[in-house]
Amino acid sequence: VRAAGEGLAVGLDVGGTKIAAGLVGADGSVLLRERLSTPDDTEALFELLVDAALRLSQGQVDIPVGVGAAGLVSHDGVIRYAPNISWVDEPLQQRLAERLGVAVTIDNDASAAAWGEFRVGAGSAVRSMAMLTLGTGVGGGLVIDERLVRGASGFGSEFGHIIVDEGGPACPCGNHGCLEPLASGTAIGRIARERLAGGQVPAGSALHRLDAVTGKAVTVAAHAGDAAAREVLATAGFWLGVGIASLCNAVDPELVVIGGGAIQAGELVLEPARRAFVERLIGAAQRRPTKIVRASLSDDAGLVGAALLSLDGPAPAGAA
Amino acid sequence: VRAAGEGLAVGLDVGGTKIAAGLVGADGSVLLRERLSTPDDTEALFELLVDAALRLSQGQVDIPVGVGAAGLVSHDGVIRYAPNISWVDEPLQQRLAERLGVAVTIDNDASAAAWGEFRVGAGSAVRSMAMLTLGTGVGGGLVIDERLVRGASGFGSEFGHIIVDEGGPACPCGNHGCLEPLASGTAIGRIARERLAGGQVPAGSALHRLDAVTGKAVTVAAHAGDAAAREVLATAGFWLGVGIASLCNAVDPELVVIGGGAIQAGELVLEPARRAFVERLIGAAQRRPTKIVRASLSDDAGLVGAALLSLDGPAPAGAA
Fold this sequence. Notes:
Two copies of one chain form a homodimer. Chain A is α/β, with parallel strands linked by helices. The first copy, chain A, contains nine helices and 13 strands. The first copy, chain A, has helices at 42-57, 92-100, 109-120, 180-183, 185-197, 215-223, 227-251, 267-280, 301-312; strands at 8-14, 18-25, 30-37, 65-69, 72-73, 79-81, 88-90, 104-108, 129-134, 138-144, 147-148, 255-259, 291-294. Chain A has a five-stranded mixed beta sheet with strand order 3-2-1-4-8. A five-stranded mixed beta sheet of chain A has the order 11-10-9-12-13. Chain A has a three-stranded antiparallel beta sheet with strand order 5-6-7, with no helix packed on it. In chain A, a hairpin with a 3-residue loop joins β9 (129-134) and β10. In chain A, α5 crosses α7 and α7 (227-251) packs across α8. The longest helix of chain A is centred in the C-terminal third of the chain and has 25 residues, at 227-251.
């Protein structure tokens, strides 16, 4: 755990289906925690975020609010676009700050999660790390020299859209062969369905008996020992490793942290990912290859990171 | 041009076949310039670098020396591996410093070139930029928030080994589908030879009449108007654009600068690169897409950047 600042902050991790909210100490501890469903209506969502922040602040004044939002967030705190929420050019930072009368910071949710892992989680001992979150999509966050890399337009570290197989499977972004359709939780389900449809799954496999062939169901089957399900996870893991190699060849972080719901697959994805990674890492023989580890804050990473970003301010802790 | 420091430095840009050396002012001006051939023998190379530094310093004491070397350079100034020079774990920083009695810094040559373009070239007005050098291979350099990103092990910004077409053409690094075998000068020659062998080049094309189908020869034919040669450059440009999209989705720099010998192709490569890039850039509709421009320091970028790195010291100019 890094040297802690002072105070408390509210962290709001806003996803397409659910919101994780909490009151967080400067040391990253979560003092209060709430899980909420994301309303479809953006005004209802705004009011829900306001109410959550007020409840969690418990009447204390000047508790800053940090938001991690599942979308493209520009430097002026405007959510330009969110694939699973109806926000378009939503000036959420300004609106929340005006309504709550406190300092509000907004970042991409995966960047917030990366900051949480960097400050008080799996990356607390390193100076640079990349985090990939595997869920419906693939998110990313990047810390270099103890600074969160937000990118020139605020759209940095979209690691789900590292292109590893140009012309490969379609990505929701409109491209083909991005990491997202190859290594997300969604991808795990797709790979399994394609193998079933293609007759590549032995008759005895549990995959034939699933009600719905989702990433989660495949992961459960794999943990129960189903060989075909494990091969599916190994395929997603292979692509994850290719994407991480490409990323590490480009920016060479000290550590790679993998989080998100789909990391329930654990070593069944990470082990093949590490193998594909080391084979493709430049100078692997001349250095200790970058470690690839599992996130340690679990579902709290986003809200903790968002809260700490609001406390750490625009020049994050540790910046020279 | 950024605020200049004081003093003079020697810059040595050491490639596999030639060395560009110069005496450089703190404003990036090149006061003296030499071109030398790279000897095969590493001891002869060492003596040649010593002699060049002494000649260029002209007897003045305390002139620091900055080296950009075509290889993997670790943080302790050791060249761990160089694909085209026989160095293996060569402690060049320490050896030069001991022999010359001055401060010596060593970085990867493409990183040095990126620093040169950032400080006094095409990137002098931005805070973050990526540079790709297209030559025999593809090199890279990355500046974020006015700092050169060297990577945790010193092996950062090897943009030639961003993997865009897993399973694609073989790369000298041992992988397949890296940017290097798809968009380097060498790649331009390979693509042309494959099209010739595959009967895809119309009988009238100048490509049939080349003595040697090299990237340079194809580029000359393309500038002379040969349609088949232009298609070859467009293919290399397409892959360059895919690689830049992948890079910009991951780190979102303000500017991308393209240098190296193969950029003689100019807009014949850059225009198709920009088209492939914008189609694949995340949030391209929500922001002004990152500009892709040609380097402005030409062959001097590496020696100027190496010299300025030796003057700027370990915390580069502009670091907060």
